[in-house]
TrEMBL record:
Pfam families: DJ-1_PfpI, HTH_18. It comes from the Bacteria. Residues 212-297 form the HTH araC/xylS-type domain. This is GlxA family transcriptional regulator. PANTHER family: ARAC-FAMILY TRANSCRIPTIONAL REGULATOR, HTH-TYPE TRANSCRIPTIONAL REGULATOR RV1931C. SMART domains: HTH_ARAC (SM00342). Keywords: Transcription, Transcription regulation.
């Protein structure tokens, strides 16, 4: 049996904790034994979402086979947040096995000296400050998680699920991780190098309802031959108006948006073993030539 010890700090984000915990809990159902435990400097740890969590206050002795994971906490900034005393940081530093973090939890690893000379990541809102606080570390920006030896760091909130699935896949194989992801109704197990913000999110920060409806249509049918005339009929306006509204709201044309969705999905398929040709046809391209050109762009 392998232990997974979660080190909790006041203000912990529930999903930072619950996502990875559910992955390892699900592994038990597959006959992959994991013992989950929760430690903190206080017995009742308030979460950012308002509920309190019970934790042991005695830091356990660890073996190289154990995993210590620090979930993130509410942190508009890192400085002055996530209080951890010297004993907890010394315990982290002395652990001979794998240490992982989600979101702001990377700051705890930094204070323990575990990021020095290593590659790491965190939530995109905290990347600059993490780099400033730990200049001996190399912060890899806008990725889901980074593995550098025994130190594994991930981006914000839901990326902890991706991190935990990766650790299961590394130890037990990708099929086991895929079964857990299916049980959790996770749409797809993402790779560490995937971007934190998908194309869907990057171009949705506007308030134009018409364009949001058009984006819904493109996203539902991005593998099809969707013409500007199709979008115009759906919006009840001219093709010229569609292009003007879409470009003003998102900064790109409808065609470019469809291409981004296709490329992003193709990248995911390639990362999971598909050939460029196979991925290109799966997302609606006739062959791999256009996909190669768009990837190079």
């Amino acid at each position: 049996m392998r232990r997974v010890v979660f080190l909790l700090v006041p203000g912990v984000h529930l999903l930072d904790l619950a996502g990875p915990a559910q992955v390892f809990f699900g592994a038990n159902d597959l006959g992959l034994p994991y013992e989950l435990s929760y430690v903190a400097e206080v017995p009742d740890v308030p979460s950012a979402q308002g509920t309190s969590l019970r934790a042991d206050t005695e830091l356990p002795e660890l073996t190289p086979d154990d995993l210590v994971l620090v979930p993130g906490w509410r942190a508009p900034r890192l400085k002055g947040t996530g209080p951890l005393g010297a004993a907890a940081l010394d315990w982290l530093r002395a652990h001979p096995g794998t240490v992982a973090s989600v979101c702001a939890g990377a700051d705890a690893l930094g204070r323990a000296g575990l990021l020095d000379g290593r590659r790491c990541t965190t939530h995109h809102d905290l990347q600059d400050e993490l780099a400033d606080r730990y200049p001996a570390a190399t912060v890899v920006r806008d990725v889901l998680y980074v593995v550098d030896g025994r130190v594994v760091t991930s981006a914000g909130i839901a990326s902890g699920i991706d991190l935990a699935l990766h650790l299961v896949a590394t130890r037990h194989g990708p099929a086991a991780a895929a079964r857990i992801a299916r049980t959790m109704v996770v749409y797809a197990r993402r790779n560490g190098g995937d971007q934190q913000a998908s194309a869907l999110l990057r171009h949705r920060s506007h308030v134009d309802d018409t364009v949001h409806r058009l984006q819904d249509l493109v996203e539902a049918r991005f593998v099809e031959r969707l013409t500007l005339a199709d979008l115009a009929r759906a919006a009840g306006c001219s093709e010229r108006t569609v292009t003007r509204l879409f470009t003003r709201a998102t900064g790109i044309t409808p065609l470019r948006y469809q291409q981004l969705l296709r490329v992003e999905r193709a990248e995911h398929l390639i990362g999971h073993g598909a050939t460029v040709e196979g991925a290109a046809r799966a997302v609606g391209f006739e062959d791999g030539r256009m996909l190669r050109r768009l990837r190079a762009r």
